[in-house]
Specification:
318 residues; Rossmann fold; 44% helix; alpha/beta
């Protein structure tokens, strides 16, 4: 049975921080000069052991399973980053992990999941999204760890929000990429609990912007114009009813950016922080650069850096 949606409380996030402290890095918050005088800072989650923020939620979710559920082995659904996080956590407990992986995921993500011991079940994007919405996939045993619609997964992501407020007490705006919605729900829950006045915004690519559409329509929507792109770690085909319920109390709006703006942000992150951001990792900075009216300090979550290097070079050079 799928448990009912409930708020992510500060106590849940603090407990998660204790569980994952030996696994997850406290990533740096780096102020960058964007040439327009604004105070923009990057939360570099691409420096995590799996090069993406998903290790926070995955580590907390796997750690908080019962011994019996964990012993069954775990499985998840992923375009790459959640799969790496769950595989990393499963390996630390010596239990098997299976990933229902989107077959068009970058090779680097597929290779890293296998290197962490995961068994890969390749599926289409549509099949993966159906499994995510139904919380089920025929033929798989073990304990399901949902990559975004999971209370413990989201609470783990909330630990990032605690770090942001602690490292930048004067923060006025926080921007996160939106895929399934787990990242922004966790970060937003923590930030709002500590500083209710902070504006929390989502960023989506124009080719896959169901949350912005849902806000315009006043309820969860499917994005019928969805297109695959190099922003494979964000931008879903729809907003589920459950994630709509989770995001509404803690998200103040959404910004839609072009693919060119995203690639430009990826290049700027490389130039200013000397780190690599994948497409989803560039969305937040792209949004901050697009909307000049945002109040600073602005914290942009660089959610991950898992991208084939040849593809990254092609994108930032154009």
């Amino acid at each position: 049975m799928i448990p009912p949606v409930r708020p992510i409380e500060l106590a849940d996030i603090e407990a998660a921080r204790g569980r994952i402290s030996g696994t997850v890095l406290r990533t740096p918050l780096v102020k960058i000069d964007t040439g327009d005088g604004r105070d923009i800072r990057l939360k570099l989650e691409n420096l995590q052991p799996t090069n993406a923020y998903k290790i926070r939620g995955a580590s907390n979710a796997v750690a908080n399973l019962s011994d019996a559920d964990r012993a069954k082995g775990v499985w998840t659904i992923s375009a790459g980053n959640a799969g790496q996080g769950v595989a990393y956590a499963a390996r630390s407990y010596g239990v098997p992990c299976t990933v229902v992986a989107i077959e068009t995921a970058p090779q680097t993500k597929l290779d890293r999941m296998r290197a962490l011991g995961a068994t890969i079940v390749p599926v289409s994007y549509e099949q993966a999204w159906v499994a995510a919405e139904s919380h089920a996939f025929d033929g798989l045993d073990g304990t399901f760890v949902h990559p975004f619609d999971n209370h413990d997964f989201i609470a783990g992501h909330g630990t990032m929000g605690l770090e942001i407020v602690e490292d930048c007490p004067e923060v006025a705006t926080v921007i996160c990429a939106i895929g399934g919605g787990g990242l922004i729900t966790g970060v937003g829950s923590a930030v709002k609990a500590k500083k209710p006045g902070v504006k929390v915004l989502g960023a989506e690519p124009e080719t896959a912007a169901p949350y912005a559409l849902s806000l315009r329509e006043g309820g969860p929507q499917k994005f019928t114009a969805w297109e695959a792109s190099f922003v494979d770690g964000a931008g879903g085909k729809s907003v589920t009813e459950r994630m709509w319920q989770r995001m509404q109390p803690v998200v103040d709006g959404a910004i839609t950016v072009t693919l060119d703006e995203t690639a430009n942000a990826m290049r700027l992150i490389a130039e200013k922080s000397r780190t690599i951001a994948e497409g989803a990792g560039g969305l937040a900075l792209a949004a901050a650069l697009q909307d000049k009216t945002l109040e600073g300090p602005i914290v942009c979550v660089v959610s991950g850096g898992n991208i084939d290097l040849a593809r990254f070079s092609e994108l930032v050079a154009r």
